Amino acid sequence: MSDYNKTYGSHKAVFGDKPEKILVDLYKQIDNSSPVLDIGAGQGRHSLFLAENGFGVEALEPSEVGIKQIQKLAEKNSLPIFYSQCDLSEFEPRVDYYSAVLIFGLLQILTRDEIDMLIKSMYDWVAEDSLVFITAFSTEELSFATRKESDKEVGKNSFQDASGMVRTYLEPNEILKLFPDYTVLHHKEFLTDMHHHGDGKEHQHAMIEAVLRV
């Protein structure tokens, strides 16, 4: 987590300051009677967007720097965001259920066991008609072959480098198999435009995105 503290501390919008398009397009379908859980909230681009649009949000983020950045912006604009600074394995819900769960950019840094744990836990965090927003890396990702060749395999299409960083890739349509009991509102697999994170080099990702209804 020290790496994320350093990364977030060096740039105010490492992954940009705009929310994912699927959230912008579909957030109005979220039932506003209960908060939204933003897992791996980072620097808050999704939490802040929803709070600005009248949703209560709980930002789950293990990075102290990330939480402080979200809190600073939320307090400045009097936005209804609650904070849980902890690892996913330590998280305890504040409410009976969440109207939506955001899992943006998270699955690719979890091991297969952690992904399984997350999916099982979510059944206790959501209710009928709750939405789940997801992005993940595909095995069509350019880095997949490199990881497979150079890093230690720790699970199905999941690899760990010498520093301990994990990258997990989903096969085409696998996201739908991971959530078989959910109704699919949106599912797309595609190659992104060229972009960069913070001051990094331009690159592309083979992305999977989905919006599911419980």
Task: Walk me through the structure.
- The protein is an alpha/beta fold and 214 residues long.
- It has a single domain, classed as 3-Layer(aba) Sandwich (Rossmann fold), CATH 3.40.50.150.
- Helices cover 28% and strands 27% of the residues.
- It is built from 7 helices and 10 strands.
- Strands 3-2-1-4-5-10-9 form a 7-stranded mixed sheet. A 3-stranded antiparallel sheet has the order 6-7-8, covered by helices on one side.
- β1, α3 (45-52) and β2 form a beta-alpha-beta unit.
- The radius of gyration is 17 Å and the shape is globular.
- The two termini are 31 Å apart.
- The mean pLDDT is 91.
What's the quick description here?
It is built from seven helices and ten strands.
- Order the strands across the largest sheet as they lie in space: 3-2-1-4-5-10-9
* DSSP strand count: 10
| Total domains | 1
- List low-pLDDT spans: none
Report the biggest beta sheet as strand number plus sense, adding barrel if it closes: 7 strands, mixed
Strand content: 25-35%
Average the pLDDT over all residues and give the rounded result. Answer: 91
Shape: globular
**CATH level 3 topology:** Rossmann fold
Class by alpha and beta content: alpha/beta
